[in-house]
Each structure stands twice: as C-alpha cells, then as structure tokens.
Amino acid sequence: MLYLDNAATSWPKPPEVAAAMTAFLNDVGANPGRAGHRRAMDAARIVADAREAIAQLVGASDPLRVVFGANATEALNLALTGLLRPGDHVVCSSMEHNAVMRPLRALEADGVQVSVVPCSPTGSLDPSDVEDALRPNTRIVVVTHASNVTGTILPIADLGWLARRRGLLLLVDAAQTAGCVPIDVAEDAVDLLAFTGHKGLLGPMGTGGLVIGERVDLGALRPLKYGGTGSRSATEYMPEFLPDRYEAGTPNVVGLAGLAAGVSWVLARGVLEIRRHEMALTAQLLAGLGGIEAVSIQGPRDAERQTATVSFTIAGCEPSEVGQLLDEEYGVLCRVGLHCAPAAHRTLGTFPAGTVRFALGAFSTAADVDEAVRAVAGIAQAAGSL
Asked: Does residue 68 sit in helix, strand or coil?
C-alpha cells in the first residue's frame, strides 16, 4: 500500500506521537486546570508543552497566544465570526478551502461584505489585486497559505505587510503548510494563524488552533464557545485573558500530548529539512507525471512554488474512476474530486469533476514517487487503448 493523501491527514505518524498519547491515558488522565493535585498539574504541563512547541514552530513570542481547538476549521470560524460584524468588508482569494468560504458565506448572509479576488489559472495570487479590492470598511484579509488542491503557495508576507500599511488584519489558513513550510508570524506580519494538528504537524486528528497576534483586539474578538475554563470560576462571564477566553470546556489533552510529540519531531528534524525533502520528491513527481502524454497537471508545476501536493487529470478518465483504479489495482491511496474547495476548482477550470490529488509527506520516498508514476502511466496507457 502506498499512502499519498497527506494533504488530508498525514500518515504514518512518528512513533513518539502514539507513545505520548498512551502515556497520558495510562499515567496522567486528569483534567488540567480543574484541580490542584499532581496529575492535574501534570496534564497542565502537557498542554503548556504543546503551546510552547507551536509558538516555537511559527515564531510566536508568547505561547499564551496559542489558542487550542479541534482543528483549523474551528480556528478560522473563531477568527471570522469573532471579528466581523454586519457592514464590515473582508477580502479572500479564489483558492480558498470551504473552511474559509462557508463561514464567509454565512457571514455574508448576515450583512458582511465579501470580495473574492481571482487567482491565476495556476492558483497564484497577485498582492496588487488584493490591494485593489480593499475598501474603506475592509477589516480582514484572509488567505490560504497554500492551496490544498494544487499546493500553490501564496505570498503571505507581501499580503501581511500590505495589511499592516492599511491598518488591516491578515488571517492565514496554514492547514497545508504548518510543519512543512517555514512560517514566522512576526516576519510575515501575520495577525491570526489557523493551524491543524493532523497534517504537517504529524499529530492526531481533533487538534489545532489559532495563533493570535498582539495587534488583535481581544475585546473585539468574541469567543466561539462559552463555558468553564477552570479559571475565574466565581464569575459567569468569560475571562478576558489568553488563552482562557477562547478555550471553554475540557481540552483534548490526550490529543495535545500527541500534537506536542509531533511538533517536537518536526522541530528536531527541522522544517527547512522537511521542506527540502518534500521539494525534491515533488520535483520528481512533477517530472514523472509530466512525461505521461495523457496527464494534465494543475498548478504551478514548480516544486519551489508549491507544497508536496500535486493535482492532475488523465484524458478520457473521470477522476473518481482513476482514484478507484489506483486503490484497487495498484494500492495507491489518494484523494479525488473537489477536495472541499469548489472555488479553487472553478479557478483552475476543473469544476465540477475535480482532479486526482497526490500529496506526499515527510515519510514519503523516491521509490514511492516512482511507484505512483508507474501506476498513473499504467492507467493512462489502458485508457488510451480503449
């Protein structure tokens, strides 16, 4: 079996991830912040370790500004619904995942104005087009760091400093890049960074969060959830301080134990080293697929301008059919269709059928790429002989 679906969820995980989760369940098991006994304190230290690891990874100066939740989708909902009010204007790109587009469309129905800036047919975005879309009532620019369809990397630093000059906030969806593309929220002028734990951070599902920059007015950022935090229990109102203001309810400590282990593995190997590894494999995959006459590759087709995600189609074959053949005949596991990003596929011209998506990861090898290319060549050859 060859797993090429890392853009959806990374696999395999470092063994340290399962070990950390098992250790929490077997040896700790308590609720952080809800008691003063030793195991509750141990649980609190695990959460703090995860917070500090994320802060180190993305260059956040204060780990308390790392707010945990279930995933990047929840983090994006917190940022968008928490900050935007009727009459506000928000700008996004045409390559966004539904984790951005669906909250925006819901807010639009309530009076928030939404502008979608068209990207090129390869998924790239010109910052000047974003600047042209700004209005006096613009409050937020929200963009994906990299497309989950084509891997195209967007210029978040250019957009961040553009937003700073105009007094706006930049919200970045880093679901596809955290852990595999270098990110520095200070250097890139990112005000809000949504991340998920189960992809490039090599942690378990059900983990993620939002890194909140110092320019964000916490009084204006309404919580997504309200409830107990283990702090200020005498009041029936949410605390005003971080991270408690946005972390109501018992946290997923077993998941955060695994997340801390995954991020620690990434930090030990080095994001730049992971990036170099994945770029080399992506270049190999692009060259291999590009040599098959019936294959059309979407995106920049340049390993330096994209993540290790490659989308393609085979002439005369539906993506769903290709995916089934890859799985059943060749043991290659990938994703097909619209990838929860219909706006991106309209930009690419691949709507409504979508594409076949191969997504390499930190544990992928050159032999894996060769095997994947041979499988696609075999399907293309069979389709051409019909």
From this structure: strand
User: Quick one: which H or E segment has residue 6?
Assistant: none
What is the CB neighbour count within 10 angstroms for residue 248? 16
Under DSSP, is residue 311 helix (H, G, I), strand (E, B) or coil? strand
Residue from 365, 339, 366 nearest 353 by CA: 339
Question: How far, in Å, CA of 191 to CA of 323, rounded?
Answer: 38
Q: What is the residue type of 74?
A: E
Alpha-carbon distance of 351 to 157, in angstroms, equals 30
- Kindly report the pTM of this predicted structure: 0.97
- Each residue's pLDDT, cut to its tens digit, for the chain (386 residues) gives 999 999 999 999 999 999 999 999 999 999 998 888 999 999 999 999 999 999 999 999 999 999 999 999 999 999 999 999 999 999 999 999 999 999 999 999 999 999 999 999 999 999 999 999 999 999 999 999 999 999 999 999 999 999 999 999 999 999 999 999 999 999 999 999 999 999 999 999 999 999 999 999 999 999 999 999 989 999 999 999 999 999 999 999 999 999 999 999 999 999 999 999 999 999 999 999 999 999 999 999 999 999 999 999 999 999 999 999 999 999 999 999 999 999 999 999 999 999 999 999 999 999 999 999 999 999 999 987 54
Amino acid identity for residue 304 in this structure: E
Q: How far, in Å, CA of 94 to CA of 345, rounded?
A: 9
Cα–Cα distance list, 173 to 161, 229, 328 (Å)? 17, 26, 34
23's enclosing H/E stretch is helix 15-23
CA separation for the pair 311, 176 (Å, rounded): 14
Residue given tokens 């951070």 in the structure block: 201
The amino acid occupying position 22 is: T
CA 227, chain centre distance (Å): 27
CA distances (Å), origin 97, targets 153, 178, 184, 253: 14, 16, 22, 28
340 is catalytic: yes
Q: What is the full DSSP assignment across 83-97?
A: H--TT-EEEEETT--
